[in-house]
Amino acid sequence: MASSSQAFFINRPAAKETQVAWKEPPPPNNPVVKGLPLHYGAIAISNLNFVQNILWSNAGFGSLRDRKELERFEPRYDPTVIKTAGPSSTPIPPTQLLKALLEEDWTSKKPSSKSFPSTLDYYEAYNSGTVTPTDVAKVLLPLIQRDVKKACEHAVAFLQVREDLVLKAAEESTRRWREGKPLSVLDGVPVAVKDEVDLTGYKKCYGSNIDFTRSDDVTSHCVKMWQDAGAVVMGKTVMHELGCDITGNNPTKGTPLNPNNENLYCGGSSSGSAYSVAAGLMPLTEGNDGGGSIRIPANYCGLYGLKTTHGRVSEAPTTGLARSTGVAGPIAANMIDLEIGYRIMSQPTPLDDNAPNFIPPAQINLQSNRNKVLGIYKPWFDLADEDVKVACNKAIDHLTSKLDYEKVDITIPLVHEGQLAHAMTILSELCQGVKASDTHKLSAPNKVLLSVARKTTSVDFLQAQRLRNLIIQHLSHLYEKHPSLLILTPTTPSAGWRIESGDLSYGLTNANKQLRNMTYAWLANFSGCPSISVPIGYAPDPKGDVPIGLMAMSEWCGEDELVAFGYDCESYLGEERRRPGARWVDVLGKAKEGKE
Asked: Which residue intervals define the domain Amidase in the entry (predicted)?
């Protein structure tokens, strides 16, 4: 494999700086509705054209028209940028990668606390014969199956569990361990995947009552890579319906409560995947990022979430909700699990013409001699609540004073307009994937959302893609000016989202709070840049302290720098973040007890 100094980029945007003076965002003025008023109002709104037009205009979606800043830019629909070693490079075979992971020395990366068992804890337990993958599967199955008479409280996080497939995979792994032939460090480790990916033998509905299952019954490539490494997929997790909000509130399929504090949402849209890790059910899950969906549940649940560029070419061709912003990525309680999950799942699929050009991820460099540059756009950063800013700045001070990071001031143009452009793009793609005739099958919030989104014109959509191009060209300028730059923001400007009375029965629509909590998460999603969310502190709460997350965004294909940054932040927080909530389950402990 070529070194990074020999690498070059395909489809990298031109480096072009755009200077636009900062303006405070206008206060949002969208109606907040829940309960029966939302239920009946959604039926009316989905059939009243003039109300849809009013709500569309009120959301500010027409604000990109006639913007002079956009005249110099062509629309860019696909933000994918590929870092390659050139046509003469030879990709690492997956089997060679798995062998390298088995032989790698992970001693320096092991988490200091055992509160959240890591993949390596499972590996050591299987290797010693203390427990088997079948023992672990038999502990987990009663906890996560919802189609039984007395479903456990954890079952709400899972949409579908195929006991026959789970036990078959676990028994095959147990046999490999008995023969001393594990496939990788992930062999026999329980994982779960979001209902947004394809999984052979499972339905796909995106957390809705609409069937999006593929007729050829394939498995998404990123999940297949985990399966080929021996991971035991326990099932598909619940998600925010269609992935188009950030709470995880799903009146159709169920809403998992935050294991840290049951008065809070897990975050969305990968709510079930985040719950599964935060509750200790498994060390690693998969989440898809259709609109910041990986980072926000990682923030609300105090987890690590990585949105990876490689995920753009790790999918088999799909039908349904195809998105120019959607990617896959791991969610984990420890950085070592995040790294292992990322390095295995990000092997590119041969079904994508661009896949062979990617440089596969290699062993992560944690040495202090790497470039460490943190970029902060201060007026944007300062939109966060005071407790979030204090926690994030404390972590940044540690990184700069103790770990040799350099902090630089940067600017990013039109961030408020960019957030609207991102929302408009996501919603337009949702409208493409959901037939208008199927709108009645959706929950009340999405009846409203998609009915309003269908008012977006081609002119507005094109303006959004022009703004995307402006922003990514400016980002290219920043990454050229500051090599290895990581752009830092809070993951969300507020700590958690509290569940209020009446929220769960029919769902809720609160675009004001949604837009605020997406203040930062949209940028990586819209620009195609990878990002990581890491826990760096807690906001006190009588029912359970609320995690606070810090987000870093690198240049395209800069996941290795993000993972190294994640390890630095994990060492900063140390034992402070090891706070299992009341719903936490000691799966390995229960499996060992069952053997005695």
From this structure: 152-562
Distance CA 346, CA 223 (A): 10
Q: For the stretch 242-272, what's the b/e string if a residue is b when 16 or more beta carbons lie within 10 angstroms of its beta carbon?
A: bbbbbbbbbbbbbbbbbbbbebbbbbbbbbb
pLDDT of residue 318: 41
In order of 340, 372, 445, 493, 554, the CA distances from 483 in angstroms are 26, 9, 43, 27, 10
Query: Which CATH superfamily includes the segment(s) 4-18+36-595?
Result: Amidase signature (AS) domain (3.90.1300.10)
Using alpha carbons, select from 453, 448, 513 the residue that is nearest to residue 39. 448
Find, among 257, 297, 303, the residue nearest to 543 by Cα.
257
- Measured over the CA atoms of residue 66, residue 70, residue 73 and residue 75, the dihedral's sign is negative
- Residue 199 CA from chain centroid, whole number: 18
Name the pTM for this structure: 0.95
Alpha-carbon gap, residue 390 to 537, rounded angstroms: 10
CA distance 127 to 110: 17
**Sequence-separated (6 or more) residues with CB below 8 Å from residue 73:** 466, 467, 469, 470, 473
Q: Are strands 531-539 and 406-409 parallel, antiparallel or unpaired?
A: unpaired
Going by the DSSP 8-state scheme, the letter that residue 543 receives in this structure is T
The position carrying tokens 């999603």 is: 525
How crowded is residue 134: how many other Cβ atoms within 10 Å of its Cβ? 21
- For 442-480, what is each residue's pLDDT tens digit? 999 999 999 999 999 999 999 999 999 999 999 999 999
H-helix segments, 64-212: 94-103, 119-128, 133-144, 163-178
CB 415 within 8 A of CB 553: no
> In terms of residues, how long is the chain?
596
Average pLDDT over residues 227-243: 96
- The answer to whether the Cα torsion of 231, 236, 242, 248 is positive or negative is negative
Distance CA 272, CA 280 (A): 12
Q: Give the pLDDT score at 2.
A: 36
* Confidence class for position 91, pLDDT limits 50, 70, 90: low
Question: In the chain, what percentage of residues exceed pLDDT 70?
Answer: 91
- Distance (Å, whole) CA 265 – CA 268: 8
357 token code pair: 């050009």
d(CA 587, CA 136): 7
Q: Are 190 and 234 in contact (CB under 8 A)?
A: yes
Q: What one-character-per-residue DSSP string does 365-405 give? A: P--TTS--EEEE-HHHHTTS-HHHHHHHHHHHHHHHHHS--
Q: What is the per-residue pLDDT across 338-397, written as a single tens digit (0 to 9) for each?
A: 999 999 998 877 776 766 677 777 778 787 678 899 999 999 999 999 999 999 999 999
Give every strand in the sheet of 406-409, ordered side by side: 158-160, 232-237, 190-194, 284-289, 327-332, 304-307, 531-539, 546-553, 485-490, 373-376, 406-409
* Average pLDDT of span 429-443: 93
Count other Cβ atoms within 10 Å, centred on residue 47.
13
Interstrand relation of 190-194 and 232-237 (parallel, antiparallel or unpaired): parallel
